[in-house]
Write a structure and sequence with these properties.
The complex is a heterotrimer of chains A (528), B (305) and C (296). Chain A contains 16 helices and 18 strands. Chain A is of the alpha+beta class. The longest helix of chain A is centred in the N-terminal third of the chain and has 19 residues. The radius of gyration of chain A is 25 Å and the shape is globular. Chain B is mainly alpha-helical and 305 residues long. In chain B, 74% of the residues lie in helices and 0% in strands. Chain B is built from 13 helices and no strands. The longest helix of chain B has 36 residues. Helix content of chain C is 72%, strand content 0%. Chain C has one domain: Orthogonal Bundle (MetI-like fold). Classes of the chains: A alpha+beta (528), B mainly alpha (305), C mainly alpha (296). Chains in contact: A-B, A-C, B-C. The interface between A and B is large, with 66 and 61 residues.
Chain lengths: 528, 305, 296
């Protein structure tokens, strides 16, 4: 190789390096946010990393605060009819878009319509299904939008009619899918409307920059209605794919806050839990195992109960996950006001053996070897390995582990091509329905083949019930069937939200059940 | 020679076609679709998405539509990053990987040739063993170990360099080393092996007998001939190294194109994989033509084609 | 360079690495009898550093790291040997034919290599595993042998890795043959009336031994490393089996500024580095012995 040519190469390299990066000043606050957002379109996004950014850019009729409580957002007041079916929202005076245009009830109606249009293909359109006609419109069965219960009667009044009293509808109004979007921008720029320089939004921040896998720069929106209370002027949101890297960035002071469990190296959790900057709190999410109840011997509830009773769930959380996760017998996490989930099945190996014998497999004899399906992450693999050891030791059952890459795993799960599999579920809103709805017969998220008429009747009935106490009683009864009698699933533990930050310096951050932490409330008690 | 090169360019089209065909078919055959998620999606929405992305209907028809879009320079949309076209993803991330890759390439080739020549000149002496050991250690470490080790020394230990990121020259050093060192080790061994063959040949003895300095004999006369395997290796190396590395770019948080390759496959992001594979193979063809030309210049005994 | 008259096979350059490699292979084969623990046997000690009971420490589930490293040696060596053997056979045959015949055949053959080259190996391996896995599974269930599934998956891994690794070998061999066939001894042999096959096998292939051995010894480690990359992506061997790759990739997180469980990386890393070093050194040593110009 010619040394001169190589020198020229090196020079060109360093030049293109400087050219393609550009300088950026350090932001007031740097947040590590998990993977690169798939989109920032409120109607399209599905993941937590996306929602964190979108909730800084957009605000719905209601908004969540740092404690996870739902309060006024773009609507300052609302009234609910006595039958719980009609909500009338008043859009606050002076509500405006980041370009200065006034934000009206018509913007909301048009944005919700866009989310429901089949062509938008919104994953979370079902968040609007409690509204009359919304489901039919989304599925293309209804084409006349005036029949959908969304009506802007004047610029500041939005009237929403529900098909059944939905106790959690105000929570839904803070969900990103129900955010208003600037439709003239979408018409003008097409799918690029969400890019920096083009995006018009209504939240606490605007989009300053967005480079793939590099950073998102958020800049305070001076036209936001409570801009006075927003302390952090610029925020850098860094996508990060590798947990060890995320921790290095934090430990070396390159980032101020690490959200997302995926950003914490699992091996270090036991050690990290003792650090002053480690914070964790229960969230609305459950780790569980599914049975494929269409395959014998798992079509026998006694077998499913036996396996659940034989598990030492404490081993999983104390030995492997280590972040203070509570073990559980119920699918619904505790802490939802008004709802007390059933106890579920505890650990009882003797009873497990007896049930297994009753089902025809004394000491596990004659029980076919079966597989446990999971997608590979260190923790899932360790839990699966421990499960395998416990089954062998306690019931004499032979379990074969089966690891598939993510998309294949999802495919196997929804096509019921498994015996048992790992799963997790994150609640979308603080109400038991977001959990219990999954196991209604034929639901896309059921994925166990399980069908139970009484369960379906109870959950569906609960959603037509206006009286909260009766409603929760019905849901609890349904859940009892799910986790104490039938067990198409074994709930194992509830997740905790994990955050790394220095609490002596960062204020406006509270652990909460919905694991949402609005940037607009954070401030520096002491500049780092 | 120009005719031979022209012929190679003609071969490029069928090669690229073959690449796109095999990639597309593999991606569509693998179980699991681009829109499968943890939360189930209503059937009609999935249908809508598949038709929007022209992934419905029989696979051969899908492929032909895809080809006609490719012919117009439209690499289509990513199915995962739903507001991004593949063209945009490449435009934003490729320059980063090229900058990083060029630095790593220089490290690999300059370092590898130099160390290889030195090792050969000290054949069977202490220096040869030490260099051999260093080179071998470089090959024996996976990049996901080498990266953290470099961090351990230069970042946590000495505190000289940042843990990653992109935008300052300091942030280029560690990822370039992590990317370049294994290839450097490989080239060291290649150079050493072929230098040893060349050093036994007559013209080297002649050059020595003429009283030329040892440095000149080694680096000019011998290396010129011993470089053939290195040259043939550096074509694919350049294509490889310039299109980034999943491991290095993820560990050092470099916003390059590398992760899109592997993650595209895992996400069944068929057009991202198709587009990047196409880019990669076009680069490869170019570099291989350069290799053949260099071959001809270095060794007049070889006729091109 | 070995002194004239010495026995080339018994130089320390070949004996030392050969002995190390033999030791690694022996330990890998005898592994299960050498250790009091099973490779998948969990225990009460979490992240125990090396002690008298656990020479290599334990992992998060209390499994003995040394035992798992020995078990990993079997898998990794198997992957390396099979992958390299496949690459040797296909690569040399393909490359020699292309280079020797030359012309349009050469161009066509090398274009095919270009196509395969341009498709990232990972796409291949992932697709092969994903597509064939479910078929394999149905087949095993039909044969009433579902518990063979992990082994079947391992075989898929060999197939995928091996069948994508021969391309470099083919390219290099072809380049060398292209140069060699222009040499005088080839035209001399042709003038003497020897057949092309004979020339290829008797005169050209022996001249390739050096470079082929270098590439082979480089290829085995490459296959082993490739498997480790798949493990890093979570696509390696099926737990609770372990390869060096899976052990090292989960141990790589041990390098961090908070708390280092160094044995998780050092124990399997040392084993792998030792084996790969021995392979490479052996290749070097053999090269000196087998090079036709030196022995002949």
């Amino acid at each position: 190789m010619n040394p001169r040519r190589l020198l020229a190469f090196a020079l060109a390299a360093s030049l293109s390096f400087t050219a393609c990066t550009g300088r950026h000043s350090r932001a007031d606050f740097v947040l590590l946010n998990g993977i690169e957002p798939e989109s920032l379109d409120p109607a399209i996004i599905t993941g937590q990393p996306e929602m964190r950014v979108v909730q800084a850019l957009f605000e719905g009729l209601t908004a969540r605060d740092k404690n996870g409580e739902t309060g006024p957002g773009m609507a300052d007041t609302w009234t609910i009819s006595p039958d719980g079916l009609t909500y009338t929202f008043h859009i606050r005076d002076g509500a405006s878009w980041s370009n200065g245009e006034p934000l009206t009830a018509h913007d909301f109606a048009a944005s919700w319509r866009r989310a429901l249009e089949p062509a938008t293909a919104s994953d979370y359109a079902e968040m609007l299904y409690p509204i009359t006609g919304a489901e039919a419109y989304n599925k293309g069965d209804l084409t006349d939008f005036s029949q959908v219960g969304i009506h802007a009667t004047d610029p500041s009044r939005l009237v929403v009619t529900l098909r059944a009293p939905t106790a959690y509808f105000l929570h839904l109004c803070s969900f990103p899918t129900l955010s208003p979007v600037w439709l003239p921008g979408i018409e003008k720029h097409g799918m690029d409307w969400i890019k920096p320089g083009k995006l018009v939004c209504n939240g606490a921040y605007t989009l300053g920059a967005w480079r793939i896998n590099d950073r998102i720069r958020l800049v305070k929106n001076p036209r936001y209605w409570r801009a006075d209370s927003v302390a952090l002027g610029t925020v850098d949101v860094l996508p990060i794919a590798h947990a060890t890297t995320a921790f290095n960035f934090f430990a070396l002071g390159q980032a101020h806050l690490v959200l997302d469990k995926g950003n914490i190296p699992p091996m270090l959790l036991g050690e990290l839990a003792h650090q002053p900057y480690f914070h964790s709190a229960p969230i609305l999410a459950t780790y569980f195992y599914r049975f494929n109840v269409t395959r014998p011997p798992f079509n026998d509830p006694r077998v499913r109960q036996a396996i659940a009773l034989a598990l030492d769930k404490n081993y999983f959380v104390q030995r492997i996950t280590c972040a203070g996760e509570p073990v559980t017998g119920s699918f619904t996490p505790p802490g939802l006001s008004g709802y007390t989930p059933p106890q579920g099945l505890g650990e009882n190996v003797a009873l497990a053996r007896r049930l297994l014998a009753e089902a025809g497999y004394p000491e596990g004899r004659g029980f076919p070897s079966f597989s446990l399906l999971y997608n590979k992450t260190d923790q899932d693999e360790n839990v699966a390995t421990a499960f395998q050891a416990q089954m062998k030791e306690r019931l004499g059952l032979r379990v074969e582990l089966r690891n598939q890459e993510w998309k294949v795993y999802l495919n196997s799960m929804s096509r019921l091509e498994y015996d048992m599999c790992r799963a997790s579920w994150v609640g979308d809103y603080p109400d038991p329905n977001t959990f219990l709805d999954c196991f209604i017969t034929g639901r896309g998220n059921n994925r166990t083949g399980w069908s139970h008429a009484t369960y379906d009747r109870l959950v569906n009935g609960a959603n037509r019930e206006v009286d909260p106490a009766r409603r929760y009683a019905m849901l609890a009864e349904a859940e009892k069937i799910l986790v104490e009698q039938e067990l198409p699933i074994i709930p194992i533990f509830h997740f905790v939200g994990i955050q790394l930050y220095d609490a002596t310096k960062l204020g406006g951050f509270e652990p909460n059940l919905v694991d949402e932490h609005p940037l607009r409330e954070m401030y520096w008690k002491q500049k780092p | 020679m120009t005719a031979a090169i022209f012929k190679k360019f003609l071969w490029a089209a069928p090669t690229l076609l073959g690449v796109v065909l095999v990639t597309f078919v593999l991606m569509r055959l693998a179980p699991g679709g681009p829109f499968d998620r943890e939360k189930a999606m209503p059937e009609q929405i999935k249908k809508q998405l598949l038709s929007q992305y022209k992934l419905d209907g029989p696979v051969p028809v899908q492929f032909l539509h895809y080809l006609s879009d490719l012919a117009r320079g439209d690499l289509r949309l990513s199915t995962k990053y739903r507001n991004r076209s593949v063209n945009e993803i490449i435009a934003q991330t490729l320059p980063v990987s090229v900058a990083l890759g060029t630095a790593a390439f220089v490290i690999a080739v300059v370092g590898g040739c130099t160390l290889g020549v030195l090792a050969a000149s000290m054949h069977n002496r202490m220096g040869d063993w030490v260099l051999g050991l260093v080179a071998l250690a470089g090959i024996s470490l996976p990049s996901f170990v080498l990266g953290p080790l470099l961090l351990l020394i230069f970042c946590f230990g000495l505190g000289w360099l940042p843990p990653g990121g992109w935008g300052e020259l300091r942030q280029l050093v560690l990822p370039a080393l992590a990317l370049g060192l294994p290839y450097m080790a490989y080239i060291t061994r290649l150079t050493r092996a072929s230098m040893l063959e060349v050093l036994g040949q007559d013209y080297v003895r002649t050059a020595r007998a003429k009283g030329l300095s040892e440095g000149r004999v080694l680096f000019v006369h011998a290396l010129r001939n011993a470089a053939l395997p290195v040259v043939s290796y550096s074509g694919p190396l350049a294509a490889n190294i310039l299109t980034g590395s999943l491991v290095v770019e993820e560990i050092f948080k470099v916003p390059g194109i590398g992760p899109f390759f592997v993650n595209g496959v895992l996400n069944r992001d068929v057009f991202v994989v198709g587009g990047i594979t196409l880019l990669y193979s076009a680069l490869l063809i170019c570099f291989n033509i350069i290799v053949d030309v260099t071959y001809g210049i270095l060794d007049k005994r070889i006729k091109i084609a | 360079m070995s002194a004239p008259g010495s026995q080339p096979w018994s130089t320390p350059r070949t004996l030392v690495p050969a002995a190390v490699l033999a030791l690694v292979v022996a330990v890998a084969v005898l592994g299960p009898w050498l250790s009091p623990y099973g490779y998948d046997q969990t225990g009460p000690l979490k992240f125990s550093p090396p002690t008298a009971e656990h020479w290599g420490g334990t992992d998060i589930l209390g499994r003995d790291v040394l035992t798992r490293t020995l078990h990993g040696a079997r898998i990794s060596l198997l992957v390396g040997c099979l992958g390299a053997a496949v690459s040797l056979f296909i690569g040399v045959t393909y490359g020699a034919i292309a280079g020797y015949i030359g012309g349009a055949v050469d161009a066509a053959l090398m274009r095919f290599v270009d196509v395969l080259y341009s498709i990232p190996r990972l796409v291949f391996v992932i697709a092969i595993i994903a597509v064939l896995d479910s078929h394999m599974r149905h087949l095993l269930e039909a044969l009433h042998a579902p518990h063979w599934a992990p082994q079947a998956k391992l075989a898929l891994l060999f197939a995928g890795l091996g069948a994508t690794q021969w391309l470099t070998m083919a390219r290099v061999v072809r380049g060398q043959v292209l140069a060699l066939k222009e040499r005088q001894f080839v035209s001399a042999s042709l003038a003497l009336g020897q057949s092309h096959t004979r020339i290829l096998i008797l005169h050209i292939l022996p001249n390739l031994t050096g470079i082929v051995i270098v590439y082979l010894t480089l290829n085995m480690p490459v296959v082993i490393l490739e498997e480790s990359l798949l493990s890093f992506l979570g696509l390696g061997v099926q737990a609770p089996m372990a390869s060096w790759g899976t052990l090292i990739s989960s141990g790589a997180a041990a390098v961090n500024p908070l708390k280092s469980y160094w044995w998780l990386l050092v124990v399997p890393g040392t084993a792998m580095a030792l084996a790969l070093l021995a392979m490479n050194f052996l290749g070097d040593g053999l090269r000196d012995v087998l090079d036709p110009r030196k022995t002949g």
